[in-house]
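User: Thanks for the earlier help. One more: tRNA (guanine-N(1)-)-methyltransferase. Can you show the sequence and predicted structure together?

Assistant: Of course, both are below.
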Amino acid sequence: MKFVFVTLFPEMIRSACEWSILGRAAREGLLSVECVDPRYYATDRHRSVDDTTCGGGAGMVLKPQTFLAALDRARELAPGALVAAMTPVGESLGQERVCDLAGSGRDLILLCGHYEGFDERILEEADLRLSIGDFVLTGGELPALCVMDAVARFIPGVLGKQVSAEEDSFHHSLLEYPQYTRPVAYRGKSVPELLLSGDHAKIGQWRRKESLRATCRYRPELLRSMQWQKGDGKLFLAMKEEEKEKSQRHRED
C-alpha cells in the first residue's frame, strides 16, 4: 500500500516512518511512503504557500495554487488513491473508518494543513476530511501519521505472522482485555491464576468478560455499537455481580 503525504515538512514524515514497525514494513516492501512539498510549486521568491484570509481575520490560509499543484503530483504518484485532508472540522477517526480505509484496496494521499488551515477549494478536492480528536494541533503531520499507523496495521505481514490487528482494542467496539507477562508475582500483585491454567476456553471467556468490564468502566458509549456474541449476557451479569461484591467488600473494609 502506498501513502503519499502532501506536506510542508517532508523530513518530519520521513523520519517518523524510518523506525519500529512502519520502518520495517517499508524496508520489506509491504508499504511505501512518498512526500510532496507544496513549496516546490511556489513561484514567488519567498516560496510562499499561504496568504491572508479573504474577509479579514487573524492568521494565514494555505493557498490553493501550491497545494493543488502538489496534489496533482501526488495523484501521479498514486493513481486512484483516496485523498484525505487532515482538518479539525473533519470526521473523527474511529476504528470503523480505519478498517474501511485498509480494506478499500486503494492507496492513500494525506493532505497536511498548517496555519489557519486550507483554502476551502483545497478541501473540496478531498474524498474525505479526517480529524483525530476535538483539539487543535500546530499542523496536520502528526494526525496524518496516526492515520497511516492505524491503517498500516491491517496490511498483511506488517504486524508479523502471529499478530492480527483484528484482536486490538476497539475491534467490535470493545476495549482490549488486560494483558500480563512474567514474573507471575511482582510488587505484591499477581497474574490471574486462570491465565496460567492452560484452559483456553475459560481464558477466552475471561478475556471477553474483561473486555466488557474495561469498556463499561472507561468507554461505556461504545457498548451501543458493539457486536454482541452468544454468551455475552451471562458474562455481563457475572461481571456486574463481581463489581457489586467488590464494592460491598470495599465498604466493609
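User: Great, one quick takeaway?

Assistant: The domain at 2-153 is CATH 3.40.1280.10 (Alpha/beta knot).
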